[in-house]
């Protein structure tokens, strides 16, 4: 790493430094109770934000850079408008200092972690000032949190990592055996990295919980030291209590470099942030910010020949750009059916039953991808027409079948893909938010026309059709559109009469003949769902255990080596 520039923040001791989502700006928080917005490439301070009565320990910006959230020693969580600096919300519900804060991807929720042993979840759209949920499973301080695809990961001084599956309300609790201070999820969502107070950084497989690698030869016994992954997941960076910036190769755990910030300053480097797109890094030591740039080539004395992972030998040529990945050929399942037939509920039931059979060591066995994510972009006029029930969302032309086909092909070839998330209430994709989907053993694609396109239909190894009567589907649609999306009943009925019903009869219902299994009554048909799950168990060679007949535990503990 090469030092590009150093500049003073004038905030006392800097507690955290964070790049924004595109890397053009960064935020710093300090012991002087302020937050600052910077243009780091030019050392330009743009704006200062106040409102905390004690030091600010963490700060995070929203996906559109319009809002920020912060937490500090005053036990408060602030929600701030970036342009005006106005405090939009001030939450005061923690019993101890707030260690970490994060927005969800849509910036509609704030997560805060505290030394009071809780994670609290705040709905910033609500008029209420109480958290919508409190996660109080930790037995000691919650030191950090990280958000992945539908998952919240936390670390605690009780030596445990907790993985909250937000979609299905599951908690996986992993005993590490060290006091934990910081956590990061790899960009492919398959691994997580934890910092400890025993001068070790540990890399774990998020799916089965196995320890993959340990990184040592740095100092971290007293303070929380942050770590970061390079954008290609090839290198790991960390500060150190002896004033150094450390870099390791992720595959070999070999230390690539150890750089002093100042020759006469051995004060701790606690916080750092990696640029989201470029090979740049920001660190902070005492009151100064340091901008580093990776050299064109990092020299390593030893060649990577073979690497052992999960008790299997994998040749280095199997890795793509150094990513820690194993080749997985997913079993692809298509689930079709009319609108509001219960496709999503059937998928959820299959996922729950299959993963409860697999056990805690296969927390990410199944992924569900909605076909709605592959709608073609709509103009403002088209979205307004859709709200009034005057636009056909159920016609084959509404979908980008070429993009869907290529995405499924990439997953079948073992590649990780990025999929734009669709907002069904607004009839548009959520700007700036992409879901990272890695190959897992089972991938389910659900949608009304998933069997309509022959090239897509032929990719599925199992095809299911959820068959629900028209009256039930209409009743569900009316309730959903009016209650969840605030639609006018007249618009809902007009859309159903003019487009939904004709499109179902013309394009969806004829594809029923391609199904391997037809499921009448949807998820209420327990016999059909059980048979499907049993078939998948046989395919994946999972042998049912005695506990399989019992309801899956909501709280699963997984022991880790230490």
From TrEMBL:
One GO BP annotation of this record: UMP salvage
Gene3D superfamilies: P-loop containing nucleotide triphosphate hydrolases, YVTN repeat-like/Quinoprotein amine dehydrogenase
Catalytic activity line of the entry: uridine + ATP = UMP + ADP + H(+); cytidine + ATP = CMP + ADP + H(+)
PANTHER family attached to this UniProt entry: WD REPEAT DOMAIN-CONTAINING PROTEIN 83 (PTHR22842:SF3), WD40 REPEAT PROTEIN (PTHR22842)
Lineage: Eukaryota, Metazoa, Spiralia, Gnathifera, Rotifera
Family designation: Belongs to the WD repeat MORG1 family.
Annotated Pfam families: PRK, WD40
InterPro entries: P-loop_NTPase, PRK/URK, Uridine_kinase-like, WD40/YVTN_repeat-like_dom_sf, WD40_repeat_CS, WD40_repeat_dom_sf, WD40_rpt, WD_repeat_MORG1
Chain spans, region Disordered: 543-562
Source organism of this protein record: Rotaria sordida
Protein name (record): WD repeat domain-containing protein 83
Domain Phosphoribulokinase/uridine kinase positions: 332-527
Predominant localisation class: cytoplasm
Superkingdom, taxonomy of origin: Eukaryota
Repeat positions for WD: 7-48, 91-126
EC numbers for this chain: 2.7.1.48
